[in-house]
Design goal:
alpha+beta, 159 residues, 21% strand
């Protein structure tokens, strides 16, 4: 998998739910996912610590295998490689069209508590996708993301 054009995920964006319950992967994130997936495949999973989803491209597959090896080396003989591999590689591959439209699988909608809108927050090798209400419950370390999300919501309501 070539990710030569991939420079990471940065910035913020917002997507209200559209027709037929679809969301739109915003252009800023869409181009980065294409660069890191050699096409239109968005990888999504529940974030391991926060009440949100995490998104990335297929180029992370090699990194996940390296992460698994590293965690096993650090943990020692009690490490359950099968369980950890299932956690790391259990993400959904979600196709999107040329306009970025995609259908969020119901199990991810439930796990991320996603309903009427998504806020996207860049995070380097991956990005988070938040229900705005869940993001607003986060502490002050998320103040900039919360402010951006509130602005996007206000702009969406005025349209």
């Amino acid at each position: 998998m070539s990710a030569a054009g991939f420079g990471g995920f940065s910035g913020q964006a917002f997507s209200p739910a559209g027709d037929k319950g679809r969301f739109v992967l915003p252009p800023l994130f869409r181009s980065a996912v294409k660069d890191s997936s050699d096409g239109r495949v968005l990888c999504l999973d529940k974030h391991p610590r926060f009440s949100c989803l995490v998104g990335f491209g297929l180029s992370r597959m090699g990194e996940l295998e390296t992460q698994l090896d590293r965690e096993e080396d650090r943990a020692g003989p009690d490490f359950d490689r099968d369980t950890r591999a299932a956690q790391l590689f259990g993400f959904a591959r979600v196709p999107f069209d040329d306009s970025g439209r995609f259908v969020l699988p119901d199990h991810l909608r439930m796990l991320g508590n996603i309903d009427g809108a998504m806020f996207f927050q860049g995070g380097g090798r991956s990005f988070t996708i938040w229900n705005p209400a869940e993001l607003m419950r986060m502490d002050d370390a998320w103040a900039a993301a919360k402010a951006a999300c509130a602005q996007f919501q206000s702009e969406a309501k005025s349209k």
